Amino acid sequence: MKLNQLTLTQALAGIKAQKFSAREVYDACVAAIKEKNPDLHAFLDHTDGSNYQDRGRFHGLPLAIKDNFCTHEFQTRASSAVLDGFHAPYQATVVNKLAEAGFSFLGKTNMDAWAHGSSTETSDYGPTKNPRNPAHAPGGSSGGSAAAVAADMCLAALGSETAGSVRQPAAWCGCVGFRPSYGRASRYGVIAMASSTDSPGFLAKTTADAALLTPLICGPDPYDATSSPEKFPDLSPHLATSLKGKKIGFLYLDIPGLESTRAYYEQAWRDLEKLGAQVSAATARDPQEAIGVYTVVQRSEVASNLGRYDGLRYGHTRDHFGAEARRRIMLGTFLLSQGYADKYYVQAQKVRTLFMQDFARLFSEFDILVSPVSPSFAKTLGSSEGNALFGELEDIFVEPSAICGLPAGSVPCYHDPATNLYLGLNIMAPFHHETDVIEVMSAFETGTHWNSWHNQEK
């Protein structure tokens, strides 16, 4: 097995046992990028191999960074031509924390421009291909990060989620995605899309790796007033192999559009029962209502956040905005205009509160909620063209938890041998209950054979 194919956990164990060095792992990832990136286009910028430093707890092991996190080493463009050539004067708090822990950064990964999309096809620098099947999209907006992980071009990658941008590409690329509760990880230095839902998270090869990485970026930040003051727990002790006594509610299996994949999620239900969980169908608010809430809130916050890119401070004028960004700015401006803000934006926030109340009711009955991540396997490249709500429809099952700021993750729950594509299981817990998500993710991963990297660790 090549060193770039290792999980982070395996790499640390091998370094400790002096089987290889962190520099050798780093070099293997750099070589994999040079070999694979010209075709997959997962990285927009990447190192030439000269930035490695053996430092800290993680010895300079390599990670990838989504292009909406400000960094010193590389341009920060959010995959938009508006920011072409922009070098941030400071680093995002979470990037600083990873550097202090001892990681080296391989480069910046492609994404939907400004994080507007769920396929990484709205990038102004061209789409990323899914390493599992290059005729298909990797999902988005963290599609470049997911593709880099799935192609073994890095050990793990930093991503961000607003509606499903960590979990959905993780599902489509057959890797693990995990996002903590809103506010657990600082948004300082992250190019804002929808400020009330943006959440940094990780694309990783295994749940153990996600559990190891996430506490490194979480905690209070004086530069982000929305960051939680509570101490973030160590997640690694909560890796589990049994779910005995857990009450799990399964959501959304009766929603139209699941006809071709429902049987695979029903098998996941049975797998959870084999692990000792008590699983039953849960009735929640219609997730289609969340599409309306998210569309109104997100477009409104986009119009506000993108107003600063006026060509005076960042180099390129507003005529460099792509078509998707223009559509969202126009709709958001309308939604916030006089006479319409109360009618749409305020009303959407009221319905958002109803979703929070509904989740509170559900978590009074269940310890954990699970659902599909996306209605289908990864769509073919070009499927998002002409479909203004492509992302919202592909994220329909993860949007309710995202607008409520809940901790959640995705683990592979089926692999189609004919197409080499994956499905993901969406696992959600109450606010600030990240340990419960990790426990279920880990037990499911251990008790099934869908995670290709976990299989190699056995």
Explain how this protein is built:
- With 458 residues, this protein is of the alpha/beta class.
- It has a single domain (3-457), classed as Amidase signature (AS) domain (Amidase signature (AS) enzymes), CATH 3.90.1300.10.
- It is 36% helix and 13% strand.
- The chain has an 11-stranded mixed beta sheet with strand order 1-3-2-4-6-5-10-11-9-7-8, with helices on both faces.
- The two termini are 14 Å apart.
Query: What's the oligomerization state?
Result: single chain
| Class per helix and strand makeup | alpha/beta
Compute the average pLDDT: 96
**H-E order:** HHEEHEHEHEEHEHEHHHEHHEEHH
Low-confidence stretches: none
Q: How is the biggest beta sheet arranged?
A: 11 strands, mixed
Give the domain tally.
Answer: 1
CATH class: Alpha Beta
Biggest sheet, strands in spatial order? 1-3-2-4-6-5-10-11-9-7-8
Number of helical segments with 4 or more residues: 14
The coarse overall form would be globular
Q: Can you give the helix content as a percent range?
A: 25-40%
CATH superfamily: Amidase signature (AS) domain
- Could you say what the CATH architecture is? Alpha-Beta Complex
CATH topology: Amidase signature (AS) enzymes
**Termini separation:** 14 Å
E-strand count: 11
Query: Beta-strand percentage?
Result: 5-15%
- Rounded to an integer in angstroms, the radius of gyration calculated over CA atoms is 20 Å
